[in-house]
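Morning - zinc ion inputs below, output right after.
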Amino acid sequence: MEAGREGQVFTYANPDGLTVGVGDLVQVPLQGRRHAGLVLACLQTLPEGLADKRMRAVETVLQSAAVNGSWQALLLAVATACHTSRFRTLKSALPPGWLGQRPRGPGGRLLCQISRVESQLPAPDLQAELSCRQRALLDHLDRLGGRRLLRDLLAVDGFGRGLITALEAKGLVRREQVRGSPATRTPPLGQPPAPPIVLEEPRIANAAQAAAVEAIDTAAAGSTLLLWGVTGAGKTEVYLQAAARQLRQGRSVLLLVPEIGLIPQLLDRCRARFGPQVLEYHSGMGDAERVTAWRRCLDAAAAAEPMVAIGTRSAIFLPLAPLGLIVLDEEHDTSYKQESPMPCYHARDVAQRRASLDGARLVLGSATPSLETWLRCRQPEVEGGIRLLRLPERIGQRPLPPVRLVDMRLEFAEGHRRLISRPLMGRLEQLQARGEQAVVLVPRRGYRSFLSCRSCGEAVQCPNCDVALTVHRSSHRGAAATEWLRCHWCDHRQEIAQRCGKCGSTAFKPFGAGTQRVMEQLAAELEGLRLLRFDQDTTRGRDGHRRLLERFAAGEADVLVGTQMLAKGMDLPRVTLAAVLAADGLLHRPDLRSSEHCLQLLLQLAGRAGRGELPGEVLVQTYSPEHPVIRHLVDGRYERFLEEELQLRRQAGLVPFSRACLLRLAGPSASATATAATSLVERVRAQVEREGWMVIGPAPAPVAKVAGRSRWQVLLHGPAATALPLPPEAELRRILPQNVSLAIDPDPLQL
Ligand code: ADP
Ligand code: ZN
Ligand code: ZN
């Protein structure tokens, strides 16, 4: 079995009375502590050299047959490709907490349970008195029949202790002691009681959809296809019909989306189509729930009952078997890449490996495929090639919305200095009368609200990180609005200073425009326009995205103002206008892929408009209308962009015509980290250069400090399709001091 920090393989004895098999998750003693590990092999005779040692014994089986043979092969392949141990990979692949868990102690321990107390106040008064989180907790308890163990509320459902104390003080919940026997244990939170399921009939596929479904169905086991459909072309319907065919043949299906926010919509559609054989798996779920989902997959596999699992990146490891189809929707999305902890894997690569190991088909879906995928599509015959399926038109032959630019330099020259240009204002004014809706993107990067000094230019920095703090404000009904500063990297919060710490000036003003400032300006200038905000702050919690989108879909607001999340996947028929406030915040980034990612984002956003009967329009405000990305956006020729970009990269010998690997180090101080990075480079340089690679760095990372830790990086650059020229991970770690961490990122997305 495999366990421990360094990820070595250890041998344990199998005590009498315990049945242990390959693929079991077991608990073992190691270095004075208990650890969980995976059984890799059962030996009949001891290997040489071990015989005389006194072996320790396996203590218990935590989960028998947690993984099967092809899963273990996948584990090994991913660990090798990511240059790390199977143990680290296992930790990322299994539900969190599973490897660290202890077996359940004997029953009868006293546990604290939180129960609901009926309020004396009339409902409207009560609602007014509660914060949004407090209301969420009460709703949650109500859904679960009014009580739940404190432990589960904290660890599984993610509520805070302070919240519970506050509700206790209001007399709305009560603490009780209960015996911790299995009978009193509250059930792990599955889904909230589902409404009775009425199965939905599949839609009648159009010709392109039908051809795609057929092609997926008849594709060779282990092959990969790209479903390239313009936004609104009906890709989801293709996934569902292809999935249905697999289920009929007794095979399971895995549907991956890049973000939690996209799960509810897909989950609803799958439940309506396939009924109860659908499950979800993502980081928005508690640890216990994720273990439950994993076990459900195992049970289904044992019972030969096909399932549909919907999840984010880590769901690629769910133990579904036999697996017939994997779908990676929005395959170009960077959220599929895990940056830390190791293994730094890309779900697309894992999916391809899994498809070939399990004999499944892999479908990559996108309106804006990544350059890497496109390159492989151009060579469908070579190994790793991808077959291209196109959905060239929107459903019902609806036109793609035209893109209109607003040159902000002209706006400025004509004396109009608002965030929102006159043309955009004009369009927003007409929305309500027409019964239409708009989405407005406020690019997160570069356009947050910073607090900066007008005299010396200093922005207020986070004390722990190398970034400026952003301004947040909350206004509860009735109460005065409060403002504070917050760090998006480490969540540090502090009060707003009145005076510049550097020069003492009092001319302190927020700079740039966060979603909140845009909301305020819109509210001030367009009275009566109903607004909703869609960003990290307003979509917290398990159902945050869904609730907000439901409110918008139900017509509670005319405009949805939000960050990048807005662009992804939502299908709202009354949205006729998609606007970008400051495209420039996205254009000028020093990254190899910034053009590609920016164009993908803008095209995706454009794709939100005009999906229903009403024609749509896209309005982009920018100071750089001649920028190539903006030009490609306007003429909508993404394929031409890909070709040009491929050409550029080929000439310059850049990724994907070469390979890169990033070594990321973090340590307690800049000097300690720099020293460690230098000794790492000394250690690897000879091998790297011998194998035809180059070392670039060490250099401070783009954000050189996060949460008080200094960050340095070393870039390795070498020929395409060659192995990383590095000694084993454990050997590299030995060079580094204990307090300096290392992540090896093969094929990093950010360069
Ligand atoms: P995409 O994912 O390609 O952007 P969707 O799958 O969300 O597009 O489909 C766009 C809209 O068209 C959805 O509202 C969907 O229900 C509808 N739709 C898809 N296929 C059909 C069809 N064959 N007939 C009628 N409506 C369809
Ligand atoms: Zn100053
Ligand atoms: Zn910080």
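Note: The pocket of zinc ion (ligand 2) is lined by residues 453, 455-456, 458, 500, 502-503, 505 (CB under 6 Å).

O.
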